[in-house]
Amino acid sequence: MKIVYPGSFDPITYGHLDVIRRCSMKFDEVVVAVLENNNKKTLFSLAERKSLIEESVEELENVKVDTFSGLLVDYVAQNQFDFVIRGLRSVSDFEYEFQMALVNHQLDAFTETLFMVTSSRHSYLSSSIVKEVASFDGNVDLMVPSHVSMALKNKFQKGE
Ligand SMILES: Nc1ncnc2c1ncn2[C@@H]1O[C@H](COP(=O)(O)OP(=O)(O)OP(=O)(O)O)[C@@H](O)[C@H]1O
Ligand SMILES: [Mg+2]
Fold this sequence. Notes:
The chain is built from 6 helices and 5 strands. With 160 residues, it is of the alpha/beta class. A 5-stranded parallel β-sheet has the order 3-2-1-4-5, with helices on both faces. The chain is globular.
């Protein structure tokens, strides 16, 4: 089975990577799909987000990285994914994710969403919190791979 894991990944964290690794053990093919959303200002460009993920999943042979824009259901239909995977960290994630899954299912009844519950040691992690810590030059080594931590340092140094 072929699944898609969509998100902004601005930038990828160990929380995302945990979901990707666990999916790669259960499904034949995992496509991490980076959303190009012109309405959401991101720290990293689409190309940067994609390449940071590529470097993180190098050793996982059945994981590919792609980008998409527009409606997720259209991207799913074009690529014939069996499932959309989303991660759940908290009750607050649930409300939003539940709504998105219902909307997507209403837009296209063939789009089915599966939820993977976070590992407890990653439950506090989000791209936003990583960016906040990094912006104050805090240590993010337990939150993201070293190449991502370097990229964050470069971004925030340039911004100063
Ligand atoms: N630590 C984590 N454990 C499990 N799932 C996660 C974790 N972090 C993010 N996810 C899930 O990954 C998917 C993509 O998330 P997204 O790109 O919005 O990352 P994010 O960390 O939530 O970033 P942001 O803080 O910008 O919202 C979502 O389904 C989200 O719930
Ligand atoms: Mg999020």
